[in-house]
């Protein structure tokens, strides 16, 4: 009788161990509710005289997938000129890809004569923060408040 009990206990232990191993392999390492940063690449063209407007497109690379998006914006303040910018950076605070879309606000300024460097720090209502920098070409003097809307293509 004692041998039967040992055999049953051993089998139960092996079955339990196999089930736990299978469960560990099936559950993802990063839960879906965890935040992950994404790489952002944007091209923007804008023109302004006191009130400015701009439009562009870009790609968010997040969790191994590319998500193309378009953006449009409006700026108000001391702004004059026209530029084209190619910006590169990171978006943080993304829980799901839909968090990336929305209206972002920024306060900034800059100067470009033929070529210059542009940097921007944006935040939307869902808590996503985008930090971008890169070269811009054209003529612009700016000190303004901007609102940028991002939507998926």
UniProtKB/TrEMBL annotation:
Keywords: Membrane, Signal, Transmembrane, Transmembrane helix. Residues 1-36 form the signal peptide. The keyword Transmembrane applies. The chain crosses the membrane at residues 44-62. InterPro entries: TAT_signal (IPR006311). This is DUF1134 domain-containing protein. It comes from Bradyrhizobium iriomotense.
């Amino acid at each position: 009788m004692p041998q039967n009990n040992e055999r049953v206990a051993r089998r139960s232990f092996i079955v339990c161990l196999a089930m736990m191993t299978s469960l560990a392999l099936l559950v993802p390492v990063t839960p879906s509710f965890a935040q992950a940063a994404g790489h952002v690449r944007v091209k923007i063209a804008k023109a302004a005289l006191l009130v400015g407007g701009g439009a562009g497109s870009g790609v968010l690379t997040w969790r191994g997938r590319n998500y193309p998006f378009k953006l449009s914006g409006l700026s108000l303040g001391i702004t004059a000129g026209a530029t084209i910018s190619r910006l590169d950076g990171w978006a943080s605070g993304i829980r799901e890809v839909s968090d990336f879309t929305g209206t972002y606000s920024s306060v900034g300024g800059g100067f470009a004569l033929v070529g210059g460097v542009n940097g921007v720090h944006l935040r939307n209502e869902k808590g996503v923060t985008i930090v971008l920098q890169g070269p811009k070409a054209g003529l612009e003097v700016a000190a303004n408040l901007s609102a940028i809307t991002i939507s998926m293509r």
